[in-house]
Amino acid sequence: MRITQRMMTRGYIDRMSGNLSRLSASNRKLSSGTKYTRVSENTAEVARAFEVREKLYRNEQYTANIESAQGELSSAESNLMIVNGIMQNVQNRLLQGDTGTLPASERKLIANELKSLQQEILQISNAKFGEKYTFAGSGTGKAPFDNAGGVLTYHGYEVDKLEPDPTTGRPSTVDRTDPAHPVYTEINFNKDIYIDVGLGMTVAGSGVGTQVDTNSVVKLSTSGMEAFGFGVDPNTGMPNNVYSLLSKTIADMENGNFTEMDRDLTAVTGSYDRLLVGVTDVGTRSSFLDDTLSRLDGDSINLKTTQQKLEAVPLEEEMIYNKTHEMSWMVTLQLGSKIIPPSIFDFLR
Amino acid sequence: MRPTFMGFETTKRGMMLNQKGLDIVSHNISNLGVTGYTRQRLDQVSITSQGTQGRYAAKPYTLAGQGADINGVTQVRDPYLDKRFRMENADVGYYNKMTEVLGDMETSLDDVDSAGLKVAIEKFNKAISTLHASAPTTTNANIVLTTAKSLTQVLRQYDVKLNNISNQQQYDLEVSNETVNSLMERIANLNESISKETFAKEGTNSAYFGPNELFDERNALLDELSQYADISVTTHPDNTIDVTVAGHAAVTGNRATTINFIRNSDNTVSLAWQDDGTSVDSNGGIFKASLDVINGRGGAGKSDHESLERGIPYYKDQLDSFSRTFADAFNNTIPVLDPVTNKPQTDPDGKVIYKQLFGFEQGKDLGASSIQVTKDWGDNPNFILLPTSADGAYDNTYYQSMLNVFSKDISFDTGFQGTMEGFVKGYVTTLGEDKQFNESRLGATAAITNSLLDNIAQVSGVSMDEEGADMMAYTKAYNAMSRMMTTLDEALDTLINRTGVVGR
Fold first, then answer.
1. Contact at 8 Å (CB) between B421 and A56?
2. Is the Cα torsion angle B176, B180, B183, B185 positive or negative in sign?
3. Worst-scoring range by mean pLDDT, A208-212, B8-12, B445-449?
């Protein structure tokens, strides 16, 4: 085989540029910390990395959703607790006033006290968290409760006249023009609002026909009707709503109607239960969110580890490669001075 | 009978021959670094003496010892290697061009290192998710609008970038075409010069000698030409060559045809032969690569000009399809409510009328180049907010419907079935795979051409040692011939001056 000058130079230049490009690729990896900057460098791995990035940003979003929901729910929870406390207070005052020995003026004082407690309940029912009214159901843009004219309304519906729809149990207006077939119409502004917290929200249909699978989401809204009650108890005829109940109690207290006051006391005690159910409901959702949040945190950590494996350069390993490339580059450069080897001409006299 | 002065002629020829040998050694060494230079060799022959066939018959040995003569100076070159190299070089040209263009596209549509379409979708998704999870405030609605706008801008930008690459490639192809025309012209001119310089050595039947340096020049032109298209070369006895480019006779003797660059009305380009108007249908090389990327519409090729490779039109089509499907999906999420009844409005067919969130510029094709946020929405971020439900209450069902667009499988009009992000992922990874494939093919073919170039260098390159050895041989021979001359001279001196002086 003939070895010619051109072969040697060609080979040298080829290997030199090969070495240099390996060195520069390794330098890029080290300085950027990422294994690749283009899909084509490792299509399969980049496709997986995209998947992970997608999951990560979804997780971030779920976490943000939960964090804002938690604030809302805990505000609802503490407000309900306060109302619960107020009702205990009401119970005590009722016990005080429910004796014939108390002079009418004293009862009057208690009634006044009850009035201010009632006012407090109304304020709490219209409590706001951020931009939204906490107990407004889906009508969060305006204060839900109003007692104009001494009649409590929820989004304009008279609370005591509402009845639960026998099938859904949701507060509805009733049309009894045909007594045999009453027509129930669910009140407006009282829809449930759900948020996506990464349970795999399943939605059927689109646009107007959208149906969300309630098991795949978490309920965010708290209905003032569910929390504070609506309509009248069909057995006792007592109003279910705490505010309305208080209105009746105050009137009975002022009038000294002891028979009624006994019934009021039972009803007030009963209202605890409903309030506590409300608190528990909110609390359950809130603690479910806590659990979900910690699950998401765990997921995020796992995802980040995977992302690290997929996208980040293993520094120690790459450093060794880098040193190797650098070494061969130096050797190549040194060889360069010998690329024109001695030939016969160096030995001719 | 031996002629008295015969030896002088022989010696003179020998001296001249060895001097010429030294000339060639010097020429070879001088050209050591000249690109495309082929090592030259002095063709020497021993002179045959004829005894019986002359006018006066003599014994065959009477005229023996005529020494050597120069037949000519030839190149040491292996035509088979040239042929192999040029075949492979067309592939290198093809894959190199493909890799370059796909690399450009990949950089323009990058989502790994910088924020591209995927990130824009992600931000839009996040904005809607926030709107869905928290209160329907103007702030949140505005973020949705802003992210939607930037998403449409990314799509339009992608389209513009792809157009720019396509224009650049069209320009490049035009330049390549001119280069090829000039290469063919120059080869024809060289054919002309070479045929005039070529001569046949007297007394040899088939050995033609020609201007070696012009051969080198022509070979270099052929090598260059071979990266544009598949070529084949036929050599004639007078050292002229015929070249076919992409199967079409391009250079015949001193005549070359030209290729015309044509822009077609359907936004494609083509190359056609000047002489018979047929299109240039190359199997490889830069020509095929350029046509593939400019005209490549994947499997959806509609006209004859379009190629079935995945070129720029394919990737543009995909973007267009995405834009249309995307707009359509979001334009079916938020209904228009009747101001009086607050119920979703329906058209005479009973279909719900939805708010149009995305639209396309009037008078343009529906696609990435014209997608935009509708004026209604663009002017008013709250367009998507109020009233959002039939009873006017806050109802995030419609936002759920918007969010659902991201997670549900959609049928795209390209035939793809899957989520939007899946589509984009598929889009960028297909491009990545195309680039990866071409890059690895480039590596493989380049390795082959490299080793062929090595082989060529091995055969045709200049070796210093070899030239040194030749130089010594020629020098020694020359010295010896000089000595021979002296010897002959002395012999004649003896004959002329010293012979017959007995008794003087």
1. no
2. negative
3. A208-212
- CB contact (8 A) between residue B465 and residue A207: no
In this prediction the pTM is 0.84
pLDDT confidence tier of residue B204, bands split at 50, 70 and 90: low
- Peptide bond preceding A103 in cis form (omega within 30 of 0): no
Q: What is the mean pLDDT of chain B?
A: 88
Which of A77-81, A153-157, B63-67, B267-271 shows the lowest mean pLDDT across its residues? B63-67
Say if the Cβ atoms of B400 and A348 lie within 8 Å.
no
CA B441, CA B286: separation in Å to the nearest integer?
14
Residue A82 CA to chain centroid, in angstroms?
A: 23
B450/A14 touch (CB, cutoff 8 Å), yes or no: yes
* Percent composition of chain B: helix, strand, coil (DSSP 3-state, to 5): 55, 15, 30
| Other Cβ atoms closer than 10 A to B320 | 22
Q: CA distances (Å), B50 to each of B61, B64, B66, B69, B71, in order?
A: 8, 8, 10, 15, 18
Reported as a single tens digit per residue, the pLDDT across A152-210 is 999 889 999 899 988 888 899 988 888 888 899 888 888 888 888 888 778 777 767 77
Chain B environment of A38 (Cβ under 8 Å): 103, 106-107, 110, 112-113, 432, 435
Touching check for B203 and chain A: CB below 8 Å?
A: no
- CA dihedral (A242, A246, A247, A252) in degrees, to 10, reads 140
User: Between chains, do B129 and A196 touch, taking CB under 8 Å as contact?
Assistant: yes
What's residue B265's pLDDT? 87
Give the residues across from B243 on adjacent strands.
Answer: B233, B251
Report the distance separating Cα B17 and Cα B178, nearest Å.
Answer: 46
As a whole number of angstroms, the distance between CA A233 and CA A32 comes to 70
Separation between Cα atoms, residue A6 and residue A81, nearest integer Å: 91
* Residue A276 to residue B424: CA distance in whole angstroms: 50
For residue A47, the chain B residues in CB contact (below 8 A) are 425, 429
What is residue B504's predicted lDDT score, i.e. its pLDDT? 64
Between CA A222 and CA A304 the distance in angstroms is 35
Quote the ipTM score.
0.81
Structure tokens at B1: 């009978």
Q: Cβ distance A188 to B393 under 8 Å? A: yes
Of B103, B126, B465, the CB nearest to A57: B126
- Are residues B352 and A345, on separate chains, in Cβ contact within 8 Å? no
pLDDT grade for B301, boundaries at 50, 70 and 90: low
Q: What is the mean pLDDT of residues B351-371?
A: 90
Among B407, B431, B464, select the one facing A345 at the smallest CB separation: B464
Indicate which of A6, A52, A142 best probes the interface with B, i.e. most B CBs within 10 Å of its own CB. Answer: A6
Of B134, B433, B458, the CB nearest to A4: B458
- The whole-angstrom separation of Cα A227 and Cα A76 is 10
- Mark yes or no for CB contact A4/B463 under 8 Å: yes
Bridge partners (DSSP) of residue B58 are none
| Pair B105, B165: CB distance under 8 Å | yes
Asked if residue A221 lies in contact with residue B394, where contact means CB atoms within 8 angstroms, the answer is no
Distance from CA of B183 to the nearest CA of A (A): 25
**Mutation target vs A (from B132, B397, B450; most A CBs, 10 A cutoff):** B397
Distance CA B176, CA B170 (A): 10
